[in-house]
Amino acid sequence: MGLAGGSTGGRTDETGGRQGPVAPSGRAPVALRPLALGEAPITGGLWGQRQQINREVTIPLGAEKLEAVGSFENFKAAAARRRGGYHGPVYQDGEVYKWLEALAWEQARGASKQFAGWQREVTGLIRDAQADDGYLNTFIQVEAGDQERYADLAYNHEIFNNGALIQAAVAQARTGNDSGLLAVAERVATHLGATFGPGKRAGVCGHPLVEMALVELGRQTGRSEYVNLAGYFVGARGQRTLNTREFRPMYYSDRLPFREITSPEGHAVRALYLAAGATDLAVESRDSELVDVLRLQWQNMVATKMYLTGGLGSRWEGEAFGDPFELPNDRAYCETCAAVASIQWAWRLLLLTGEARYADLIERTLYNALLPGLSLDGDRFFYVNALELRSGASIEYSRSVAGGRQTWYGTSCCPTNLMRTLSSLEHYFVTRTGDGLQVHQYTPTRIRTTAAGQPVELDVATEYPWDGAVEITVRNASAVPWELALRIPAWATGARVTVNGGEPAEVPTPGEYLRLNRRWETGDVVLLNLPMAARLTRADDRIDAARGRAAIERGPLVYCLEQADHKVDLDLLCIEKGTEMTVTESASPGARIAVEASGQAISRVPDSGLYHPLDGGAPRPGDPVTLRAVPYFTWANRGVDAMRVWIPLS
Amino acid sequence: MGLAGGSTGGRTDETGGRQGPVAPSGRAPVALRPLALGEAPITGGLWGQRQQINREVTIPLGAEKLEAVGSFENFKAAAARRRGGYHGPVYQDGEVYKWLEALAWEQARGASKQFAGWQREVTGLIRDAQADDGYLNTFIQVEAGDQERYADLAYNHEIFNNGALIQAAVAQARTGNDSGLLAVAERVATHLGATFGPGKRAGVCGHPLVEMALVELGRQTGRSEYVNLAGYFVGARGQRTLNTREFRPMYYSDRLPFREITSPEGHAVRALYLAAGATDLAVESRDSELVDVLRLQWQNMVATKMYLTGGLGSRWEGEAFGDPFELPNDRAYCETCAAVASIQWAWRLLLLTGEARYADLIERTLYNALLPGLSLDGDRFFYVNALELRSGASIEYSRSVAGGRQTWYGTSCCPTNLMRTLSSLEHYFVTRTGDGLQVHQYTPTRIRTTAAGQPVELDVATEYPWDGAVEITVRNASAVPWELALRIPAWATGARVTVNGGEPAEVPTPGEYLRLNRRWETGDVVLLNLPMAARLTRADDRIDAARGRAAIERGPLVYCLEQADHKVDLDLLCIEKGTEMTVTESASPGARIAVEASGQAISRVPDSGLYHPLDGGAPRPGDPVTLRAVPYFTWANRGVDAMRVWIPLS
């Protein structure tokens, strides 16, 4: 297996621009191409604000917390060849790398002396820490000792850490401000390649991640051996060698060979990182059978194991996917990192296929599974994103959301993953082809790129997701016609599009792209109007926790009830099946739009016990109550109290 | 705090009979008194058969498995003062003691050379293993070293093991065939008392159990210091000193002082053993405030945290109680040991108060939470008792029931707990007072005791729980009137009672005792007829997994659907709300009576995804299907496939 389409030869794509994250090689058989770095910055709106807070609050908080844990000290100790006194869990290096990746993308968004200084300094520490033979993992070097290298592949996260290092290095290289990390990463990858593979050591890491990192490194450097090594690591799984007292092979994505898995299983983040890496591999190795496997896995995931929010993972135990339709609200795991990983996977499938459903899931996941992981102020984090919190729920369990967002975690993967995702977010919103441009996500954006062989300049103005109007203004005349494709979200029945205020264009079935092919003039205005009426959603009846319930959605946002907006205990509230819903301005922080609906307070016979004859003593709807729903991603920003996404139907 | 009512002074109760498990002291303020050993043997029926299989299959299997693990070797190593080579988890000694307790009760039920030999031999090993100062825990003695004594109270289960030892010793003593274990137990208890308590070492065990053991030892020996030590161990909890990386204080019943806990929480078996021990303590110390706490805890448990089966514990993680109303069917924990512990607690509350609801729960738990833990052949065990298994559920998780009952477990608490419970089961069925006799559970029984100051002889004949007729024949004339109290189960609306075929007696509200007070003649026949029509049950709507569903019950048995009885995938079946139900003979193993009901096969739109507009595409009931339900306790005895207790309503 080689870098099938050859490589782009380094830092630029075929248009000459620098690349962002996920850059398929020039001849890779992808339907869509990412824009080059800086070609479509987010210029405002909800995501612009989130990026700003990420830059100003979250990333500096990361520096402070990583320092406090002793993460940098680990590298210094390794550089000094000291032994003992390692800080943090075995994957602590990986947290540094993810934060470093965020620094790189941020500097592409705007110069920062502070970020440049941090990057230079920490990259230096890493370079100094690397062993002479290219090996690099401070836990082994400082604490366990070199004799423990790869001795505990299930637990020690060595190759996982290496993967995160490679990702940060690729980011430094692509953003044109490599502080020397790419050379470190190449030495690490070379060391891995010399260690693992056919005729060498057999084995895979307990935590996938390196697969996509290696393919990206191959794309970046043009060296196919890195892609081959990724191919080895994907292909070698399923031997059930990862099997510990605590977790069985399924947890480690090691129950079956990857190509025999029909639905993601086990630890959610592991399974999703692996799937994303396998997608990169399938693209670069033109492996259509592997593509079929990936599409089947993804389809079964969304058809049986996905929360309404796009959240993934329904078990606290093993942070894992449950069985099909096992999607409890209260015990939902929906790790923030699983949202990141799901976006990474869906983005790769979108580039590969050009199918809108992958962009649909990215949107659902961004607003409702990733964003809830971060406080509005950017300084607190949810690791777990449950869809329901009962009043009186115990705060004592570490996985419970009852304690609210935390300022940091001993395992800080979610905060650092959020940082790097927000720093590179614009790269997931717009693509191009030889025919034109595709806008997948709607947010204020300034697009200056090349499509269909000519410069294309567009400005996107919108208040989305609060308002459904998206105005796209063409800023340059085109020499030849090109196609502007706009995603009509699957929920957007009744979307309308006009060009220059003319007759409405024909809109396809929601969940497809509307395609406008013309010779554009400077000042042309495309107006997309997405229907923003609140809507009630039901779930497959096999999902216990949602049966007999409805959820409120509006646009791409899943809404929820919070106790703060209701005098009656949330446990007593139900919603009228035929309720009208009113969209109102919201005073709740971060939520510009609230939704009001008609409900009732349930009247129960007190102290009557849990179980009754079927025909007796059922609770009765009582006094009418106005339900007030706020976007789920904003919950728990006014203190933490009862919350629910799925509301019992009266 | 002392042995408030004084002690019975040893092995006999005030009637001169030997005592069984749980023997309140003579002056303890209990409403009911247990019968003496051997006064009411079970003579047949379902429980008679289970006792026979326990004796012939399960207990010998225990000997074999405990030997194979190396449990006895541990004692030999400790006796030889060898170091290293310990076998099994830290609580392995405890498994031996529970099995030894079963041996003792079995020998009271009928002499057995084999059991006597095992008991003598293993008791000898234990005696030899005890350290000179009375300390006894082979993990510490053989593996960790004496410097580790009580160094890890949260994890090492030392005092827990000691508690099980004491329970076995009390059983040996009460059954009159002490092989020397009581002396060992007294030395252990004395060592504990010298180590822990006011002015000595502070601390409690991570796993409660010793509390009830110490009170029983106090009752057995008449030594109040053991009861005082139990008082210390109950009172010292709640300091949050048990707090580990893996589990917080709640897990260890150490979040709050016991008297401040209003609902059992954390690890279910820990919480329930503690509550049972605290009840013993409250009885012997005449502590009415503690009694109020216990009643409140129990009431909140059954009102918010109990499965229909009586099963307790709804979280895999921490084997724990969930939040109120958090009772998933698929992820139910319902550890078999939690059923044992719940029966132990309810029995103590029943003796204390004489209230039928505690006997009701014992019945529900015995048939539907304890019995499912054991295969019909007596040689396989469920640790976890889920109320639903989906087709296609992963077998890979150790806590999943998808793998069926196992022949043994690395943590074998459930098998040994089942053994000792079944060996002593008859002691939980009948009580006496100064006024008469109370029959709490209906099974063929031969009662020969003393009540109201005179000999009382009754024979109970019944096919219960398959049939509702219970015939009680009086075998001796009484000198003065006495009261026969019969529990009318809470579900038994329409129960009828006649004496000698006369006019039906007035039957109280179900969930109370029917009381017949008369001067009985030899040959008097009391006929109790409990209504055995199948019935549909609904759950509180706050229980997600049961909302919109019904369960089938008949008599004390919870029924379930098994895939083996249905051609249509269980996931597609629903039950008609107004269905008639037919009781039929069953060919399914262990299930004499099946229940048939009218249902339908749900028709779903294939591949339509999990989430839909509320008013669109809901599944529709399709072809009529006859549902065939079997008793839940018999499930998974015909292979393991989909099963559900709660059936969607059409």
> Beta-sheet strand percentage of chain A?
15-25%
Major β-sheet profile of chain A: 10 strands, antiparallel
Rg result of chain A: 25 Å
For the secondary structure, the number of strands of chain A is 21
Based on secondary structure, the structural category of chain A is alpha+beta
The greatest interface between two protein chains, and residues involved on each side, is: A-B, 62 and 62 residues
Domain Non-reducing end beta-L-arabinofuranosidase-like GH127 middle (chains A, B): 437-532
Organism (chains A, B): Actinospica acidithermotolerans
GO biological process, one term (chains A, B): carbohydrate metabolic process
Protein name (chains A, B): Glycoside hydrolase family 127 protein
Molecular structure report:
2 copies of one chain form a homodimer. Chain A has 650 residues and is α+β, with helices and mostly antiparallel strands. Among the domains of chain A are: 430-529, Sandwich (Immunoglobulin-like); 536-648, no CATH class. In chain A, 32% of the residues lie in helices and 17% in strands. Chain A has helices spanning 45-69, 71-79, 92-109, 113-129, 138-144, 158-174, 181-195, 210-221, 224-235, 268-284, 288-304, 336-353, 356-370, 413-423, and strands spanning 33-34, 388-389, 430-432, 436-439, 445-451, 454-462, 469-474, 482-488, 496-499, 512-518, 525-529, 534-539, 549-554, 557-562, 573-575, 581-585, 593-603, 611-613, 620-631, 643-644, 646-648. In chain A, strands 2, 12, 13, 14, 15, 16, 17, 19, 20 and 21 form a 10-stranded antiparallel sheet that branches. In chain A, strands 1-3-4-8-10 form a 5-stranded mixed sheet, covered by helices on one side. In chain A, a hairpin with a 2-residue loop joins strand 5 (445-451) and strand 6 (454-462). In chain A, helix 3 (92-109) runs parallel beside helix 14 and helix 12 packs antiparallel against helix 13. Chain A is globular and about 75 Å long. In chain A, 60% of the residues are buried. Residues 1-11 of chain A have low confidence and may be disordered. Strand 12 of chain A pairs antiparallel with strand 18 of chain B.
